[in-house]
Amino acid sequence: MPTRNIGRKLRDLGRWLRTPISRRRAMRRVAEFHSRQRPLDEVVQWAMAFGTRGRFRVKTIQIASEITALAREVDKISPQTILEIGTSEGGTALIWAQLASQRVITCDITPPGPRGALLTAFPPPMSKCRVTLLTGDSHSREFARRLERELNGAAVDFLFIDGDHSEGGVEADYELYRPFVRSGGIIAFHDIAERQDQPGNEVQHFWKRLKDRGPVEEFIQDRNQVGFGIGLVRV
Ligand SMILES: C[S@@+](CC[C@H](N)C(=O)[O-])C[C@H]1O[C@@H](n2cnc3c(N)ncnc32)[C@H](O)[C@@H]1O
To answer: Which of 92, 110, 142, 219 to mutate to test the pocket of ligand 1 (most atoms within 8 A of CB)?
Structure first.
């Protein structure tokens, strides 16, 4: 057991020592991404495989056609402010940072670590968009108040709910953050497909209840697919 601990500590130390080199490499990749304007489907490809690794890895696990269809809808409303619950490795935040003209606020219960520096560099060079990373439990009222302070009166144009996938968790995020979305804005949920195989993925149950309340749009590549699927409601 102590040998295993020493092994882990040495690995952590090695990683820590390599951080400045890894950061430089990752920032070069961001510069390459920004070297020309990219159409949305290309941005999505980068979000799915950005090409950085370890603590600088940027990735989203999505079906390309689904997330591209959502991004096109978001683009149509010319969003100023985008709010995302569930940053993970920043893949979707990369997409939102190409669309929002003012602000992307992305939240996760896990701190971003060194990847944070990369995420704040996501907006295009001439853009006025700023990326803000918030760490905390999105279900807590205290966190919602913090978010309200961050927004400072600005309305959210697009809210992406992709954090806690339990039925109660998705519902809590919807109820807490929906009031921040402006009329005409969009709220989207990931993993709404009826068949889900990941334990704890219960978004589809909440989605079914939401569908009964009013009109919704769905981006699901294949009705028989297991997992994924994006649901959209307009406010
Ligand atoms: C599916 S990942 C998000 C993926 C990301 N949107 C993408 O596609 O690039 C879900 C994230 O939600 C975070 N999460 C889970 N429960 C949360 C909570 N209560 N508050 C904030 N974040 C939470 C997890 O830590 C995880 O990083």
So the answer is: 110
- Closest listed residue to residue 220, CA positions, set 198, 195, 201, 202: 195
Ligand 1, residues 84, 104, 108, 119: which to mutate, most atoms within 8 A of Cβ?
108
Closest residue by CA, ligand 1 atom 4: 88
Please tell me the pTM assigned to this model. Answer: 0.94
User: What's the CATH code, domain 2-234?
Assistant: 3.40.50.150
Element (H, E) at 105: strand 103-108
CA-137 nearest atom, ligand 1: 20
Predicted confidence at residue 1, as pLDDT, reads: 57
Average pLDDT over residues 132-143: 97
Domain boundaries of the chain, sorted by first residue: 2-234
